[in-house]
Amino acid sequence: MLSLQKVTLESARYRWYGARRWSPLLQNVSFDIAPGEMVALVGGSGEGKSLLLQCLLDLLPENLRFRGRLRLMATGWTDIPSGSLGQDV
């Protein structure tokens, strides 16, 4: 069973392809989330809250580009069936 120790996002940048060009969505976003910590993502409509969650669940759409580093520090990696990480995060 997967046991997350910490989730870290470092210097994340997202760009979206629409209207025939790439547009920046988020620039240089970084955070750490510890086990049991409650986190609130706040912001206006279209400001990237759902996008951050999609990144953590590995559900990014094809017309979105991510640069940065996502680190999942955990134990039990060998027990995770392929394609099921999003269910455990």
Could you please describe the fold and organization of this structure?
GO terms for molecular function: ATP binding; ATP hydrolysis activity. Pfam families: ABC_tran (PF00005). This is ABC transport ATP-binding protein. It comes from Salmonella enterica subsp. arizonae. InterPro entries: ABC_transporter-like_ATP-bd, P-loop_NTPase. The model has no long low-confidence stretch (mean pLDDT 77). With 89 residues, the chain is mainly beta. The protein has helices at residues 49-56, 85-88, and strands spanning 3-18, 21-33, 64-75. The radius of gyration is 14 Å and the shape is globular. Strands 2-1-3 form a 3-stranded antiparallel β-sheet, with no helix packed on it. The protein is built from 2 helices and 3 strands; from the N terminus they run E-E-H-E-H. A hairpin with a 2-residue loop joins strand 1 (3-18) and strand 2 (21-33). The chain has one domain (3-76).
